[in-house]
């Protein structure tokens, strides 16, 4: 909250930030709109000065007839629709830091709210992977089926083992690794109690390079491969500066993986690399949006306050 309040000039009156998201299910032609308003406690109220306080929340679902309020919340009081469609008050008052989405969605009594909560929890935000000696990415993983990569990459070995030994299809993975890493091949032995992996390089065909021996760039690229080419992809993947520590020669292969993932799910990329942005655009036809900062405020070049661009 303190960091968010620093961005730009403070306005008079209560401090408020509103976050919203829309969800569309093409199979059922259903649209959901969720919104949460967050602010600070009044100066005289008890609690931590910069602790976020949930002010209001709402969830509406529109199946084509008319929007229906499935959930509402003001202060500590939350309402939701029961099995019969009646709007009832949730029996427990919520804490200031609780979202109704989390509390009601995990209660088991409101399937629509629970489905939305599960969707959001399934998103993956990859802000970067540790590549130091003790990085989770370099460690063996428990040998269990891993359909998608954890946000810190700690189950990478299990993700690879799932692709190699359960799906038995690594064509895209093998091609991207070979293109990025000079013809290297991924070696994933049949797991015992744990799963692991290594790389075989053309210069040393008899030598298996274990994760702890790989460079930072090699490890980071393999983690990105696990995130983008896993057995199952989340409904949203966000990559923050994926080019970090990668050699420029790896960017075309990274763009290939991003384009392949975008055929299966929604992918957001934030990058400082114009070269990577151009490679992605060439493969997807999607043009990069430029982030600008003026007078302490950050915005997207050409976008108005309503979220639209002048040429739309």
Walk me through what this model shows.
The chain is of the alpha+beta class and 312 residues long. It has 2 domains: 2-115, no CATH class; 124-300, P-loop containing nucleotide triphosphate hydrolases (Rossmann fold, 3-Layer(aba) Sandwich). Helices cover 26% and strands 25% of the residues. The chain has helices at 2-6, 100-105, 111-121, 156-167, 171-180, 216-228, 251-262, 274-284, and strands at 16-25, 30-39, 53-62, 67-74, 77-81, 87-89, 124-126, 141-142, 185-187, 194-195, 198-200, 208-209, 236-240, 266-270, 291-294, 297-300. Strands 1-2-3-4-5-6 form a 6-stranded antiparallel beta sheet. A 3-stranded parallel beta sheet has the order 7-13-14, with helices on one face. Strands 9-11-12 form a 3-stranded antiparallel beta sheet. Helix 5 (171-180) runs antiparallel to helix 7, helix 6 packs parallel to helix 7 (251-262) and helix 7 (251-262) packs across helix 8. The longest helix has 13 residues, at 216-228. The protein starts with a helix and ends in a 12-residue tail after the last strand.
